[in-house]
């Protein structure tokens, strides 16, 4: 007798009828469909309908001497598992058992009740008639329906769902019925049907009708779980469905196992999307029918615990376990249901406890060899009976935009392919950008600057040329230049259709056009050469700086793998720069060759047409100017890089000096440090002193304009902008050098401050220090200055009240700008022989 406390003994619910267990809710839904616009009904709660199908024992099982029938069919809704009257010896895994379970019960003898039980003689048609046929009515109401076959491997799931040509499964029969119903209702409704057929294999979702990359699932607020990128197929009759099923099933992953020669190793899901539009009211109803053939649970021993079959088995079991957990949670009415534990449960989310009328077909084998599997299946089927779904019609307001399931899938497909293309495009773009960004960043900026400079320069040259032309023209022309040029049949030269060159000599327009084009080519080549030269210079400087860094650091490195790696990277960078430099050099050579060809052509043209001589001269002027500009720009760039490097080095030197000082003090300073260290320290300080101070040396250059009026001085020596710029950089370097001298230096030697009396003459020799103290030690300034430059009248402004700080300012000013004679007072009385004049040197 079955214990009352046994949780597996279900009590028959009032809603289950004797003949087939159709619930009340299902009966309500199976009422004939009204053709009028049915108002959206509130959700109807209904339980999952669970039917059990016992398959016939196969030959292999029957031939086994240990075979025993452990499932006894009682009636359409009842079965007994492991019936008591069965007193034959019981074998499990080939061993005769004394008792049949660990609880020492002789027989389990458990009675199970389900919505419907099919015995081993039942056909697929009978199963269909008593299970999924009723779903058609629900579908016609506009409600979602779902049917899934559950059971151990070889228990008959695929046979029930798909069947064979002689005995088609319930999928085909259901669809046939659907088409029949569609025919019946064609007069009043327009139908649109579309299906998708996918499999979940090893936790990957694959489209069986459109093979490709695994698909992703997406939670959609409106449509629940949607498979992204799945291809929908429109069908108009059941035969089309049958063809598609055949195609899909051929692609479905199947492998023979011990339990089943054609075991399905994946979960297959066929989804049919139906849209019905009522012809008279234009009401739209939508429904989704999901038909799922699950892979069978199995023991590892069935696959030999090895290889791909074992991995598949583990994945199948994992997803079925997740399904079992979901069933348990739903049956217990828990709020959290772990749908997300597997792809299968995510897909079945709608079917289990959602807005769906669900039928579960539990397939069992009657053989004692499958004792555990059958018992487990029956237990899960019993738990599943408790699951409630809330069923509601999917009715679309006729005024609403028709964004149907079909449309959604099509839209998603469209979106997916667009995103894919876009993704690929962006990926490629990113790769290209990454490749070129390094070189382009510098090159682009330089080019931009260059172009601007060129335009400016071109305009200047144009202006100058106009002036030259105006000067050359007769007086009458100067008065009326336009009429003159027109009268002389002027040919216009230049880069743009404007007024670059205006020749008063009559020249054949064709020749002038050839000439103009050749000049343009030449300029273009020059520009390209400049760009390449600029790039080559950049590479060369970078390479040299990297090599410099490596040699500087090599003495500091302690050999560790990281440092080795760093060294290796530097070497790689140096190699890379070298290669690029070589490549650019080759380009330069090529361009230069082309340039000479163009030059030759020009020369030949001019030789042939002497009337071009004047234009040629002017164009050459322009080219020379351009050449000069490119060269000076390159120098400028080089100087800037060197300057930056110098700045970095100064800063490192400064930090090192501080460290040196601290170390020196730490070992006892000048009083306590060992003599050898003291000597080394002072040597370094002396070296720093030598490196960091300004150097002045004898020169034969003309007198600096110390005694000149600043206004006169600047006016008489016009300075080009580039010259001015390089001077500024030099000044900057010098200033930084001075700033970095710091207190380390002052400690090494007590400097003497010159006797700086206001207005007095001062003879200061080249070794004299001028010390000025700022607010912080870093601001202390020490430097050598020439007697002339640092005359008290220069350093200490007589107009200001003299304070140590103002002295400092003045001294700094003088030191920072050794070439600014303008800062000196007019007619300074300090004089020095010509050979003693200092000259600034970097
Ligand atoms: N009701 C039935 N009548 C006759 N033969 C059946 C029945 N059910 C199953 N079979 C046979 O049993 C074998 C296994 O069935 P099927 O392949 O459907 O099992 P399955 O549960 O789908 O297994 P798997 O999970 O491994 O795919 C097949 O040869 C099938 O023809």
Automatic annotation (TrEMBL):
InterPro entries: Kinesin-like_fam (IPR027640), Kinesin_motor_CS (IPR019821), Kinesin_motor_dom (IPR001752), Kinesin_motor_dom_sf (IPR036961), P-loop_NTPase (IPR027417)
First-listed, main subcellular location of the protein, grouped into a coarse class: cytoplasm
UniProt keyword annotations, A-Z: ATP-binding, Coiled coil, Cytoplasm, Cytoskeleton, Microtubule, Motor protein, Nucleotide-binding
Protein name, entry field: Kinesin-like protein
PROSITE patterns named among the record's database cross-references: KINESIN_MOTOR_1, KINESIN_MOTOR_2
Homology family: Belongs to the TRAFAC class myosin-kinesin ATPase superfamily. Kinesin family. KIN-8 subfamily.
Residue ranges the record marks as coiled coil: 402-471, 563-608
Top-rank taxon, per record: Eukaryota
GO molecular function, one term: microtubule motor activity
Localization per Swiss-Prot or TrEMBL: Cytoplasm, Cytoskeleton
Residues the record lists as binding ATP: 151-158
GO biological process: microtubule-based movement
Source species: Ceutorhynchus assimilis (cabbage seed weevil)
Ranges of biased composition (kind: Polar residues): 740-753
Ranges of Basic and acidic residues composition bias in the record: 832-842
Compositionally biased intervals (Low complexity): 710-721
Pfam families: Kinesin
Domain called Kinesin motor: residue spans: 47-387
């Amino acid at each position: 007798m079955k214990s009352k406390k046994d949780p597996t003994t279900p009590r028959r619910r009032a809603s289950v009828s004797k003949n087939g267990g159709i619930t009340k809710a299902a009966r309500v839904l199976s009422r004939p469909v009204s053709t009028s616009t049915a108002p959206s009904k509130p959700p109807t709660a209904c339980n999952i309908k669970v039917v059990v199908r016992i398959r016939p024992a196969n030959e292999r099982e029957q031939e086994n001497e240990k075979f025993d029938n452990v499932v006894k069919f009682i009636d359409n809704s009842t079965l007994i598992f492991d019936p008591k009257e069965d007193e034959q010896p019981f074998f499990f895994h080939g061993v005769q058992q004394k008792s049949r379970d660990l609880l020492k019960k002789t027989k389990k003898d458990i009675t199970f009740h389900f919505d419907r039980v099919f015995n081993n003689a039942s056909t697929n048609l009978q199963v269909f008639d008593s299970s999924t046929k009723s779903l058609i009515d629900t579908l016609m109401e506009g409600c979602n329906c779902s049917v899934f076959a559950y059971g151990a491997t070889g228990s008959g799931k695929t046979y029930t769902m798909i069947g064979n040509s002689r005995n088609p499964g319930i999928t085909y029969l259901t669809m046939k019925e659907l088409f029949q119903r569609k025919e019946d209702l064609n007069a009043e409704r327009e139908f649109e049907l579309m299906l998708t057929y996918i499999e979940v294999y090893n936790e990957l979702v694959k489209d069986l009708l459109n093979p490709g990359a695994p698909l992703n699932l997406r939670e959609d607020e409106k449509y629940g779980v949607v498979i992204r990128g799945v291809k929908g197929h429109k069908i108009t009759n059941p035969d089309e469905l049958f063809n598609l099923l055949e195609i899909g099933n051929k692609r479905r992953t199947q492998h023979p196992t011990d339990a089943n020669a054609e075991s399905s190793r994946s979960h297959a899901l066929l989804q049919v999307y139906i849209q019905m539009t009522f012809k008279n009211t234009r009401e739209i109803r939508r429904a989704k029918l999901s038909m799922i053939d699950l892979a069978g649970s199995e023991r590892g021993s069935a696959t030999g615990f090895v290889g791909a079959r074992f991995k598949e088995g583990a994945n199948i079991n994992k997803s079925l376990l997740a399904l079992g957990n979901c069933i348990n949670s739903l049956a217990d009415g828990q709020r959290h249901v772990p749908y997300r534990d597997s792809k299968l449960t995510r897909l079945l989310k709608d079917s289990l406890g959602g807005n769906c009328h669900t039928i579960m077909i539990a397939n069992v084998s009657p053989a004692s060899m499958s004792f555990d599997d059958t018992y487990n299946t029956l237990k899960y089927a019993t738990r599943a009976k408790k699951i409630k779904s809330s069923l509601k019609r999917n009715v679309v307001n006729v005024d609403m935009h028709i964004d149907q399931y079909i449309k959604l899938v099509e839209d998603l497909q469209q979106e997916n392919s667009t995103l894919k293309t876009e993704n690929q495009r962006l990926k490629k773009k990113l790769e290209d950008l990454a490749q070129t960004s390094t070189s382009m960043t510098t090159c682009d900026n330089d080019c931009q600057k260059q172009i601007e400079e060129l335009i400016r320069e071109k305009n200047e040259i144009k202006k100058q040329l106009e002036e030259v032309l105006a000067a050359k023209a007769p007086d009458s022309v100067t008065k009326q230049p336009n009429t003159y040029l027109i009268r002389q049949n002027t040919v216009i030269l230049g880069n743009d259709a404007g007024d670059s060159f205006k020749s008063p000599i009559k020249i054949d327009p064709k020749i002038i056009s050839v000439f103009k084009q050749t000049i343009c080519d030449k300029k273009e080549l020059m520009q390209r050469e400049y760009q390449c030269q600029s790039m080559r210079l950049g590479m060369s400087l970078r390479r040299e700086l990297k090599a410099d860094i490596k040699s500087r650091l090599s003495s500091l490195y302690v050999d560790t793998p990281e440092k080795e790696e760093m060294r290796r990277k530097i070497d790689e960078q140096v190699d890379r720069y070298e290669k690029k430099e070589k490549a650019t050099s080759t380009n330069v050579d090529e361009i230069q060759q082309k340039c000479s060809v163009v030059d030759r052509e020009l020369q030949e043209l001019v030789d042939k047409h002497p009337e071009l001589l004047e234009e040629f001269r002017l164009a050459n002027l322009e080219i020379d100017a351009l050449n000069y500009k490119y060269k000076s720009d390159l120098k400028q760039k080089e100087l800037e890089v060197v300057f930056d490097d110098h700045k970095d080095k100064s800063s490192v030197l400064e930090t090192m000096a501080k460290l040196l000082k601290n170390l020196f003090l730490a070992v006892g300073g000048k009083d306590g440090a060992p003599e050898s260290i003291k000597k080394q320290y002072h040597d370094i300080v002396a070296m720093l002193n030598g490196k960091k101070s300004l150097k002045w040396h004898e020169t034969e250059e003309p007198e600096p304009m110390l005694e000149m009026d600043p206004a006169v001085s600047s006016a008489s020596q016009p300075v080009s902008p580039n010259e001015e710029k390089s001077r500024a950089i030099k000044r900057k370097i010098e200033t930084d050098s001075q700033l970095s001298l710091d207190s380390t230096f002052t400690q090494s030697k007590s400097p003497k401050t010159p006797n700086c009396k206001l207005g007095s003459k001062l003879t200061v020799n080249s070794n004299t220090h001028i010390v000025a103290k700022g607010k912080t030690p870093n601001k202390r300034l020490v430097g050598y200055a020439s007697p002339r430059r640092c005359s008290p009248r220069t350093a200490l402004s007589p107009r200001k009240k003299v304070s140590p700080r103002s002295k400092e300012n003045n001294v700094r000013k003088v030191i920072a700008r050794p070439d600014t004679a303008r800062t000196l007072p007019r007619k300074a009385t300090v004089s020095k022989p010509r050979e003693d004049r200092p000259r600034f040197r970097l």
